């Protein structure tokens, strides 16, 4: 059993992602994979699926929003000391181009901008398998100490 009260945010994330049978979470539900997990710097990938389509047959915006919320919030989480937690206060997403749902790999990168006593901000980018920008965003998180 993990003692989350004594672990830093980075230690907690690394331990949770290393579990052979992690608890249910949005990342495992969608098929996200952790590619990099450093302090203030997170990268996840997600293979697209036809089920991620909107009515027009392109990638639903909620998939990019979920990827961005995940990497930006985890970037913030990775900077927190033991005993601190956080919650997304605001999420802004800019969609640049339509994504495909043909199994191509999306890569989402998030990094912190500012981590203060009660709020933190981060930015993120989602690129497609060709390295083209699909969406980018920012977040503000409340920090609970």
Automatic annotation (TrEMBL):
<dbReference type="Pfam" id="PF03061">
    <property type="entry name" value="4HBT"/>
</dbReference>
<dbReference type="InterPro" id="IPR003736">
    <property type="entry name" value="PAAI_dom"/>
</dbReference>
<dbReference type="GO" id="GO:0016787">
    <property type="term" value="F:hydrolase activity"/>
</dbReference>
<feature type="domain" description="Thioesterase">
    <location>
        <begin position="57"/>
        <end position="135"/>
    </location>
</feature>
<protein>
    <submittedName>
        <fullName>PaaI family thioesterase</fullName>
        <ecNumber>3.1.2.-</ecNumber>
    </submittedName>
</protein>
<dbReference type="InterPro" id="IPR029069">
    <property type="entry name" value="HotDog_dom_sf"/>
</dbReference>
<dbReference type="InterPro" id="IPR006683">
    <property type="entry name" value="Thioestr_dom"/>
</dbReference>
<keyword id="KW-0378">Hydrolase</keyword>
